[in-house]
Amino acid sequence: MASVTRDDVLGALTRIVPPGADHDVVSLGWIDGVAIQPGGLVSVSLAVPAALGPSLEPLSRQAEDALRALAGVTRATVILTAQRPPQAENAQQRPPQAEKKPQPGAGGHGHATSQARIELPGVRHIIAVASGKGGVGKSTTAVNLALGLTALGLKVALFDADIYGPSIPRMLGVASVKPVANGKKVMPVTNHGLSMMSIGFMIAEDDPIIWRGPMVMGALEQLLRDVDWGTQDVMVVDMPPGTGDTQLTMCQRVALSGAVIVSTPQDIALLDAKRGLAMFRRVDVPVLGLIENMSYHLCTNCGHREDVFSHGGARRTAQELGVPFLGELPLDIRIRSGSDEGMPITLSDPEGDHALAYKAIARAVWTSLESAAPAAPNVGSQ
Ligand SMILES: Nc1ncnc2c1ncn2[C@@H]1O[C@H](COP(=O)(O)OP(=O)(O)OP(=O)(O)O)[C@@H](O)[C@H]1O
Predict the structure, then answer these.
(1) CATH classification of 6-82, choosing from 3.30.300.130, 1.10.150.320, 3.40.50.1100, 3.40.1350.10?
(2) What pTM was estimated for this model as a whole?
(3) Domain locations in the chain?
(4) Integer Cα distance of 130 and 141 in angstroms
(5) Which atom of ligand 1 is nearest to the CA of 293?
(6) Contacts of 190 (CB under 8 A, 6+ apart)
(7) Do 335 and 141 touch, CB atoms closer than 8 A?
(8) What is the structure's pLDDT at 297?
(9) Is the CB–ligand 1 distance for residue 125 below 6 Å?
(10) Hey, whose CA ends up nearest to atom 1 of ligand 1?
(11) How confident is the model over 146-197, as pLDDT tens digits?
């Protein structure tokens, strides 16, 4: 099979002209990134003026058709990302405190950065749930923590930034729901008292999501900005795993009030967790604490407890690094099956030990956020 080249891709895109424009998308400088993977999988990111985003959806379909017509292309995905506003404009929009040293919990609006910040004015606190490596239960923790926060009577949003494996829609039983537009904005999907958005709503589960860093950030930024989040006490962000450029950019661009790090107890996972912690410290985001997931195993039949992964490692690491230890959750099939079935354990067994552990973590997180920031009118406003 002929293999497709970047020039082929750009050539095909020169035939795509936005409605009302005099030039094609290549001449307009809208090509943000092109990724070509073995097997003829082509992904293109088009950085378009933010205000035009929703009206250009048909253009992205047209571009996909043009790419699919190329010899050697088996699948084409074109995503629209919002163009960054010019720097001078950003400087004017940035609140005056943006150049000051950050205050933990003060909405994260304090860290200085040269890049445009993504401000969500109706959201009081934004917290990241992160892990140094994949598969440690970050999404499971983000979902149950978010539900634990709703149990406190808070208005909670959940943003799935795990672009490599968006699992929030499945875990919250809304995998088949499609978000609806409201004017120029998209309404969050709601279920179980949470307002959520995920890249998973926008792509098919088997779509290749191996995008270059800038493309990933563009897609996340567009999603965050284009959703009508309304007023929220707290937004929980399920971060992509790892500590690479995407994660770092996300920490710099989103006004984070703090971060929660999830780790399993093994040394190797803890090393990654330490890397995650260092990343947040580097960008002045307060680390609210460490959670040990899959801390020990509980036998479903007899309830016997086994410390399969040397239980207690995260607590020791938290002490060593001077950050709070927020709690531990066992490796328990009920935690997994709840997520698989769209009914997380905090909902399915709200008075059980695991739900109580998540709720205690949620309380500690909220206390930590609020102890550093005065109460706002929307707090507890459900
Ligand atoms: N405490 C637990 N007990 C049993 N299963 C768990 C537990 N925590 C997570 N899992 C299961 O482990 C798998 C990975 O969890 P999850 O998707 O939350 O991890 P992740 O760190 O977000 O992964 P990725 O980085 O790949 O997105 C899922 O099948 C989940 O249901």
Answers:
(1) 3.30.300.130
(2) 0.71
(3) 6-82, 97-371
(4) 10
(5) 1
(6) 196
(7) no
(8) 77
(9) no
(10) 331
(11) 999 999 999 999 999 887 778 899 999 998 888 888 877 889 999 999 999 9
